[in-house]
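[Amino acid chain]
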Amino acid sequence: MFEWHAERYPSHMATIVEIEKLALSLPEKERAALAANLLDSLPGVLFDEDEGVAEALRRDSEIDANPDQIISLAQLDAQIQSRRS
């Protein structure tokens, strides 16, 4: 996870361990809402200008145009295994 420095916060505040324990005790729907809210509070990591995103969008378009090129995980594993043999 990450290093937590409890000395930065007053002792009356919940620690990250306590917060995590409480969050994990929530029902799935509430945990999902909490996770979404936390993620929304963070700055974006990837942008549309990012090469990785552009590549993913290009590949997604290729699959939409030609769904026959999709392979299963088992097929991918078999291809990788055959290359190693």
User: Anything to note?
Assistant: The CA atoms of residues 47 and 53 lie 7 Å apart. Residues 51-84 form one domain. Residues 51-65 form the longest helix (15 residues). The chain has two domains: 6-40, 51-84.
